[in-house]
Fold each of these.
Amino acid sequence: MGPLIPQGYITGQWEFVIALLIGAAFGFLLESSGFSSSRNIAGVFYGYNFVVLRVFFTAMIVAMVGLLYFDYLGWIDMSMVFVLPTFLAPMLLGGFIMGLGFVIGGFCPGTSYTACAIGKLDGFAFLGGFFLGVFLFSEAFPLFEKFYYSGDMGNITIGEVLHVSDRVVAFAFVVIAIAAFYVTWLIEKKVRANRTESKFE
Amino acid sequence: MNKNTKIKNGPRYINPYLGGILLGLLLLATFFIAGRGLSASGAVKLSIVTIVDKIAPSHAMANGYYSKFIPADGSSPLFNWLIFAAIGTFFGGMLSGAIFGRLKKFRIEHAPTVSSRTRIIAAIIGGILFGIGSQFGRGCSSGAALSGTASFSFGGLIVMLLMFGIGYAFAYFFRKLWI
């Protein structure tokens, strides 16, 4: 049955209406979880607020396990679900640069939209920088075009790299996530004992 | 509500595990409907492509990156799922802010350890880094780290591990910005 759009069940302008609604739900959940505040987000790096880890990992394991069930029940044709391709070296570099940007800027692109939406000027500063960064990358692209396409492993999955099934991968993620929830809860309790404020808006 | 009770009660956010479950279900629904996950950075990329293509079309076509995203049929790159989703994200955030009382006049949020000016400069630098990094990474926290990993992509996992790992590795050097 699914995915609906690649199989042609939804076409034309309806796609954009649905995109708008999905985007709105995404923005609502990001903001209501506390991601319009860079200080909440940065808490994950300093131990005073692990909301990023909780929301991110919960969402990931729910979607992973959900996809497996949808596949098992025959509701979704997994061969039509987009698996982000892997370009090893450029993605390592990209992750590295974004990690730096994360701890310096305190937002990621999606969360900065919601910060802008409620009037945070630091959100606008981040988003402005983000536009500039994409522009700089694009202008300089001819300099590193070859590197950008290097290490092409195709649409490879975690399971294919580790020679295990998707089910094993999902199970491992669930176990790691639950362990992380517990350990970070302990850390957060300790760190918060020495602080007056750990949640911000 | 006066200021004191507000500090005592703290900001009103939903439970993070509830938020995570709802976000996971939304991501699952997005996979079911669109065959791909959530995204945030793609919209900015397409906006930049559109602006450059409008101002300097021959320059855009000669560049191997811009030209990748300019539709061959002459339609606007903005007529795209990613753009509508990003507009939705903005207004969804605004709706939540309005409901929970956080939609207020323009302000700069920063830790007491830094000035507003430092915070703004750091936010711009962070944004620039994310702009560059997300292009090498084939997506940002939403498209690569979250949606990529959730659909079992090896590259998504790489980006997620690096993003958080490097954040922790360098957190010490930037602690004055936050604590």
Note: Chain A has nine helices and two strands.
Amino acid sequence: MELILFYLFAGVVVSSALLVVFFRNPLSSALALVAALFGVAALFVLLHAYFLAAIQVLVYAGAVMVLFIFIIMMMNLDLTTLRKIHYSFTGIVGALFGSYLAAILILRLGYFSEAARATPEDYGSIASIGKLLFTDYQVPFEMTSLLLLVAIIGAVMLAKKEAKHAARQAP
Amino acid sequence: MITLAHYLTLAALLFSIGVVGVVLRRNALIILMSIELMLNAVNLTFLSFAYYRQQLSGQVLVFFVIALAAAEATVGLAILVAIFKKQGTVDVDELRFLRG
């Protein structure tokens, strides 16, 4: 049963990840990426990471993807330029390099054929993660809040710069 | 029976697809999405090791990676919007104003 679910979600993840790369329209890519992120969230549940699966759906599939789709719609990209297919020499070399990387990575992974051990009752629960987050990982946790603050300020400043230029040119 | 190698193989595939997306596509939006794919592959690796070795620290690290990915997407998209306002394109081959 678990194996069937694993192959089902793995198929969803890999196929929608391929669609992200090979769709011509960024909006279709974004929707394929939502499917891929949901598949990854389902795999998180299979790995007993229930809290992180919820975070994955809320933060990634919710916030980040809405941001992506919002930006794509705001840019209003020209469809005629999007349809123009040009696979350059460097692109083909890159694709070959990517498949080589995949082959190397996968061939090296044969050693990790261990099976799952019996999991304790509270593994992956919010309480156990929270306990770890506020004791051993207290400093990185606080750093994360700083990082998010910097990201907010950076985004606002980048969006604001153009308005200031326009105001200066107006008089 | 699912072994650790199953999850690691899937994560390696996902990471490689992300790498191919970054080098193959010229649309900066799709490059950012491919970076998200790679981050997800790394998250999957972290969580599979955390589960198979019974180390809850792996889950905490994934929490940080997700927060970092959200910040990265925000700033990256803000930069893209600023570039798009100035240059009218997000094609990385046409953005060559740093090249003297």
Note: The radius of gyration of chain B is 17 Å.
